[in-house]
Specification:
Blueprint (H helix, E strand, L loop, with lengths): L2 E6 L5 H12 L3 E5 L12 E9 L7 H9 L9 E8 L6 H10 L7 E6 L14 H20 L11 H13 L7 E3 L8 H5 L5 E2 L6 E2 L8 H5 L5 E3 L16 H8 L3
Parallel strand pairs: 1-2, 1-3, 3-4, 4-5
Antiparallel strand pairs: 6-9, 7-8
This protein binds flavin mononucleotide (FMN) and iron/sulfur cluster (SF4) (2 copies).
């Protein structure tokens, strides 16, 4: 029987939930975390290869783009390549960016789907309150996407917008060191959850409080999963709500992210 792969990146659990839901719907599917895996070569007989990640600044998370650029994909024109991009509202250039990355490897992106989910960038705004409503809607919206994937439906990917591309590169230049603006309050109990949920091992807990190592992806997992709300960005997030996907707790995210 042919195998299936899903590469995912996830900060607050939305994309892990999507990757897991698709994998349950498709026999013989393995899910691989793009933030922490160091395996880049996949040999074998594959039916489909999927990419599930959150849209960051109208493009791919840097860790996902970097991982995909290193992938050595099987030489088989019959593999069905698809992507599900989760976002708060705007996909921008994310499909086109993935398409380009795959084309550099001789692979063609067959199907791209946008899935609106809860928008989690707490650093920029106070997040919405209606988590249940948004989650129920995205759960429903995922059903026809999974059907399309099952039926190997194909669609076209649009061209890049140059203004959004400029914005993406501007943000990406500083993204890894934005953690220099993180601070940890006296409420920290040194529980280590932030260390465990970070998808790119950017946190060390050598002293009593976490240290950030400046290869941050801004995924917000540490800020959002900290049970004490002890991690903040400058003085901006102290009074803002926190969000994590209601179906993905910190243990599940951590175990899945560290599984490769
Ligand atoms: C750094 C950052 C940048 C983001 N940029 C966008 C964006 O450009 N467009 C958008 O619609 N959502 C944006 N979002 C929201 C996420 O794409 C969305 O909440 C996603 O479902 C989170 O997935 P996760 O829970 O798997 O991390 C951004 C979130 C973060 C953390
Ligand atoms: S998750 Fe919060 S309380 Fe736990 S070690 Fe990290 S900052 Fe401290
Ligand atoms: S340090 Fe925090 S925001 Fe940065 S990648 Fe790790 S968990 Fe995400």
């Amino acid at each position: 029987m042919k195998k299936n792969l899903i590469f995912y990146f996830s900060g607050t659990g939305n994309c892990l939930k999507v990757a897991k839901t698709i994998s349950k719907n498709k026999e013989n599917t393995e899910i691989i975390p793009m933030g922490s895996s160091h395996i880049y070569e996949f040999d074998g007989d594959y039916e489909s290869i999927g990419f599930v990640y959150p849209v960051y600044f109208a493009g791919l998370p840097a860790a996902a783009a970097d991982y995909i650029s290193k992938l050595v994909l099987p030489k088989d024109d019959n593999i069905y390549y698809y992507t599900v991009n989760t976002c708060g509202s705007i996909i921008g250039n994310a499909f086109a960016q993935l398409k380009e990355l795959l084309e550099q490897k001789g692979a063609h992106l067959d199907y791209s789907a946008k899935l609106k989910m809860f928008s989690n960038y707490v650093v920029m705004y106070n997040m919405k309150e209606n988590v249940k409503e948004i989650t129920e809607k995205s759960d429903k919206d995922l059903i026809p996407i999974m059907e399309n994937i099952k039926n190997k439906y194909k669609n076209k990917t649009g061209k890049k917008n140059s203004l959004l591309e400029w914005w993406y590169h501007k943000e990406m230049k500083v993204i890894h060191t934005k953690d220099q603006h993180f601070n940890v309050s006296e409420n920290c109990t040194s529980c280590g959850i932030c260390v465990k949920v970070c998808p790119v091992d950017n946190i060390k807990l050598e002293g009593k409080k976490p240290d950030f190592l400046h290869h941050c992806e801004q995924c917000t997992a540490c800020i959002q999963y900290c049970p004490e709300k002890a991690i903040n960005f400058k003085n901006k997030t102290q009074n803002r709500r926190r969000y994590t996907n209601p179906d993905i707790n910190w243990k599940e995210l951590s175990e899945s992210n560290k599984s490769y």
